[in-house]
Amino acid sequence: MSPAKGLPAPGVAFFYGGMVRTGQIVAMLKMIFFCVVIVTVLWYAIGYSLAFGPDAGGLGVIGTLDHAFMRGIDAGSLTGSVPTVTFAVFHMSFAIVTVALIAGSIAGRATMGGWIAFVIAWTLLVYIPMAHWVFDPAGWASKQLGAVDFSGGTVVEIGSGAAGLALATVAGKRADFERQGIRPHNLPLVVIGLSLMWFGWFGFNTGSSLETPGGAAMAFLNSQLAAGSAMAGWAVTSWWRTRRVGLLDMCMGAVTGLVAMTPLAGGVSPVWASIIGFLAGLTCACAISWKYRLGVDDTLDVVGIHGWGGIVGMVMAGLCATGTLTGHKGLFYGGSWDLLGKQLTATVVLGLFSFAMTALMGKVIEATIGLRQPGGLVEKEQAYADVLSDHLKELIPDDSRAAGVGEEPDSASALVARLREVLLTVPESGGGRQSGGDRD
Q1: Phi/psi of residue 357, each to 5°?
Q2: What's the rounded Cα separation, in Å, for the pair 51 and 354?
Q3: Confidence of residue 390 (pLDDT cuts 50, 70, 90)
Q4: Does 272 have pLDDT greater than 60?
Q5: Alpha carbons 356 and 224: distance in angstroms, whole number
Q6: What does the DSSP 8-state code read for residue 58?
Q7: Which of 115, 123, 152, 121 is nearest to 135 (CA)?
Q8: Relative to the CA of 158, which of 373, 397, 398, 429 has its CA 20 to 30 Å away?
Q9: At what angle do helices 338-368 and 159-171 cross, to 10 degrees?
Q10: In whole angstroms, what is the distance from residue 64 CA to residue 136 CA?
Q11: What percent of the chain has pLDDT over 70?
Q12: Residue 393 in this model has a pLDDT that exceeds 70
């Protein structure tokens, strides 16, 4: 298991932080790092035991508290051939990053108290049961159903995507949703976040192969191939729709390829890894626009990227699994329709479970301590600052600002005129405006 497994959560923080408005970057970083703190404590206290402890009643639904506070586990304990402590920390990073991903669906409009309550409830009531179902050999999705999901295509990707859809629905739309295109404030920060996530994904996908000979090496290669191919697929869609391909398009594309490789990175051939990545990039670039048709303000496209990308990966695993890691061959490798049916069943059941539970939690939190930020003067000021920042960026090109250019009389006159225009068109309310669609 690679030490890279700990990088995705900080990577998500920087990735999301660069995509949101300037005034909301600190809040976004806090939301992600609250996940690190809260989930770490919960996982140590009862999370690991409920997810990977002895199965309660042999039903495959939840573990017991036999290993609460890591009781009975020491430096010599093994899970397979892997030290149990290493295995526990490895899966703790899965738990952290999954709930952190959901933050992107309500970026800029959640109260911090409501978010903290959600992180606690969602980790205990949604993530931990799903982890037991899929990752534990005694879980029903693994044992009774027989679905294939090595690194969390259902638990992490579809789980976070479905939760993001539910939470965004409960939280409601931003004031400027569908009205004004908003761009990320810091693309270099997005690239830094992607780099950390990309490296961390190698840890997830290779580590999940455990001691399978050659499994980790194949997972490493396939993850890289899928990410690169997905960047190409996203670029094709972006060029077809807008006749341009931006840096953010490339970053989003890479993420979709890594997402689609999550279910079975080491269990498909390199050729199929490239095809899966390309298809994921091609279709996820379209899926992010569905939020406008549905009227759901998924701010940073958690549903379109992680939800849809996870579905692509699960379906393709049922079609092109080589059987190397699991013994179950996909339809294209001489298997029957059976594996594909199992993949679809796991996808639907876990997706619906995550959506329903998240919607319920969101409504309870909103009705009690509050989930959505109330409108008010602070949000109006933030909206004004965001609009002003956007106009300044349009007026003075990035390369001119970097060189100290743009202070000539003509530029100054244009700046004054633009400021007067902005002053006459201050938004009525800010609503915690955030970056959402495209972008650079």
Answers
A1: -65, -40
A2: 16
A3: low
A4: yes
A5: 34
A6: T
A7: 152
A8: 373
A9: 30
A10: 12
A11: 81
A12: no
